[in-house]
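Help wanted!
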Amino acid sequence: MIDVNALIGTYPFRYVPHPSPDVLVRVLERENLDSAWVGHLPSAFYRDPTPGNTVLYTALALHADKLRPVPTIRPDWPHWERSLEAAVAAGAPAVRAYPAQWQLGPDDQRMKALALACGEQKLALMLTVRFEDLRQRHPLDVAGDLQPSAVRAVARAGADVRIIVTAAGKEFIEEVHWGLTPAEQQRVFWDFSWVWGPPEDHLAKLFRTIGSSRFVYGTQWPLRLAQNSAANIDLLPKELARARLADPTKIFGG
Amino acid sequence: MKEPLIDAHAHFLWEGCGRADWKDVNAARIRAGERMGISCHVSSILGTFGFTSPTYFPSPEDLTAGNDAMLALCRKYGSLVRMLVAVNPNHTTHARKEIQRCVEKGAVGIKLAASRRCDDPLLDPICKLAASLGLPILHHIWQHRRREWPNQEISDGADLAVLAERHPKVTFILAHIGGGGDYQHSYAAIRDVPNIVADTSGSGVDRSMLDEAVAAIGNQRLLWGSDITMETGLAKLRALEHTGLSNAEDLKDIRWRNAARVFGLKVAEPKKPRAESRKPRAGR
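Answered by r_m:
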């Protein structure tokens, strides 16, 4: 199992303990996870994330067998295409983008351009709905949540686009999924790190309605407990206990 | 015998909630509880959860009906489900009568939501009754109230500390440290108020939440709970083993001992495996 939604580095609005690659590797082992796709948390808040990508590549090099880098690329930054080339060269399976933090509107053409460029390189584009619950945010953290309309717009950019949306809840997922054509739906994958389990059974309902194959495994470590996603799986109703998730390495086919 | 596990913060639904799936939701709680090893769900029903009066401003009629539904669940499930009686402090006479009525039928505590800010003198008659009956009060809390929020007259840890200092004989449970807001503010607010304990429930599973709670108020003042997201409860239960702050005995406190003490529940502690008996030596 791959944790597609892991991060390293500090968070600007609260203390996060031990957000290092060494600890992440130990957590993966403890949680019986094979590997992780890892982003650089501070880069979400940098004006220019490029230096953060360099830090990420360097930090993960010692753990290349377990941790794959997911750099951050800002498509409204000059020459962002060079960062994409660097991502390909570094063996990244995906690219992270944070349109809410960068104040890019839901229909921003530059996000579509990034999604298409990633698709050409067989890289998934990862979008994050939130890092923290809205109710606890620091007064200076004013970005707000990613909006479902932003995901729909990117999903419609082209047939080669593949998006992994992290930290969405049930209503968000449903709004996007049922707002896309069947072909467009196949371009979007979800981690369930923020989807509720019992007694409301949101995850079970989503598995029954849109299918477990639209979901990948993610934890949002180190911000959230790595145990949460496994707990959610463990508490599924019996008939869903063997539901198969998507393999994130095969979301482009093959 | 399994190690007991008491969910200090649970809710059930009933037909008056206006949800067609209310039975499914209740069944899911029991199902997940069995999977997790929950030996007791300490639960409340907040009126009709918004169907005929607001969740956080429930009418007396809705509260009585909801408490009746909760009593019925207690009868159905026996010791697996225990009850907190929910009341609205704005209706003092009803609240006191309702507490008396439900305690006579087995309620083990009082549930206050967000009908009146908790440092208001209107809560005093309820707290005095709680003191006389030896009941704890589970109080809904927004971790760090920085402004008013719609649909509730919300209280935070600092507000609860004011009330708790006025009523030192009552144990107050600060609800759901993972239920939204800044739990770090709550820890600071209640650290020096010994008659406030906190429950771990809520959808929030921030990684530092548990470590900081144990560091601030200690394992004796922390009660495990789930509220309306049981997977986060299970995750916290598993994570507690890795806080680096709890040994096996501390974990027992958080799993059930503290809740048993606060709610006055009789829970049989599993016997420790007996050491292998030595064979008598020959000639002795």
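OP: Thanks! One thing I noticed: The two ends of chain A are 17 Å apart (CA to CA).
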